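batch job 7 of whatever, protein = Co-chaperone protein HscB homolog
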Amino acid sequence: MAIEQNYFILFELPQQYQVDTALLSERYRALQKTLHPDRYAHKSEREQLQAVQASAHLNEALATLKSPLRRAAYLLSLKGVDTDVSHQTVSDGAFLMQQMMLREQLDDARHADDPFEALEELLEQLQGSEAELQQSLESQLQSDDPAVLSDALDNLRKLQFFDKLRHEIERVEDELDDL
């Protein structure tokens, strides 16, 4: 296995946003049986190193394709789009306003009569917004048009905001469970 191999080719999956995760897991297990470094324990040092590198590549490929956010970023990178969002921000004012309102709802949920119900409602609202963005992103990732791919990158950034908010909701739920 070439460790620079495209992750979709590695798992013999179509290069698209939607992935059959059961098939991905099945193909991972089959490849892992073949490539696991323990199978190379009695081989030369070079072969052992290659097995470790191949296994690391396989694990990175699995983690990337299992995660919708990482998968979208990977697909964009395959199309030549710089997905390093550390120096880029979302400029959509309506989206940023929505984020502020969602964060206010999160703060309000902590003090609600039934905080778990308030958090559940917030999570449902978040999932609806995420589903819309993911649907747009899936369509955009099929394009090779730079303007469309730029929009896809914007949607990826927005999904990252939602992902962070989801983790914060889970953290608040854990804090409330501990009380």
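notes: The chain has a mean pLDDT of 92.
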